[in-house]
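Q: Here's a chain of 168 amino acids. Please give me its 3D structure as C-alpha cells.
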Amino acid sequence: MPAPDQLPLDPVAEARRHWAAHGWEAAADGMAAVTSLMRAQQIALARVESVLRPYGVTFARYEVLMLLYFSRAGSLPMAKIGKRLQVHATSVTNAVDRLESADLVRRTPHPTDRRATLVELLPKGRELAAKATEELNDQVFAAPGLSPDNVASLVEVLAQLRHGAGDF
C-alpha cells in the first residue's frame, strides 16, 4: 500500500499515455524524459537542501564555497566563479553577498587587475564547507537512490545531454 502522500500511479507515465493519445506520440518519450528529469532534479535538490539547511546555506552558496575550497589559493575572481559554475554574474553577486554577510568569504581587490574582485574563503567558510560536504557525502552522494551501475549510466547519459547543449 502506498504511503499517504505517495501517488498510486506514475504521473509521468500517465502524462506520456495522454500525450500519445492526443496524437503527440513522436514527442511523448521526450516529454516523459524531460518531465522525469525535472522531477528528479526537484527530489535531489530537496535532499541536498535538507542537509545544508542547518548550515544556513543553499546549494548555490555551497557550490561557491566548494569552488573556493578546491582552488589552490582559496580565492577566485568573481567572473571566474560565474564561469565555472555556469551562472550569471548577478547570481554570483547574490551568493557572495550572502556568504560574506555570514563571514564565510570576503571580497578583496585583485592584486593585478583593478577591474576584478577576488572572493576569498575564510576559515569559518572552509570549516562549514568541510562539515557540510561530510554530511552530503554520507546522506546524499554515497547513496543517491540508484545502483552504482545506474549512477554511472545516468552520469554518462546526462553528460551527453549537457555536451549536446553546448555545456562543455
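Q: Can you summarize the key feature?
A: Residues 7-55 form one domain.
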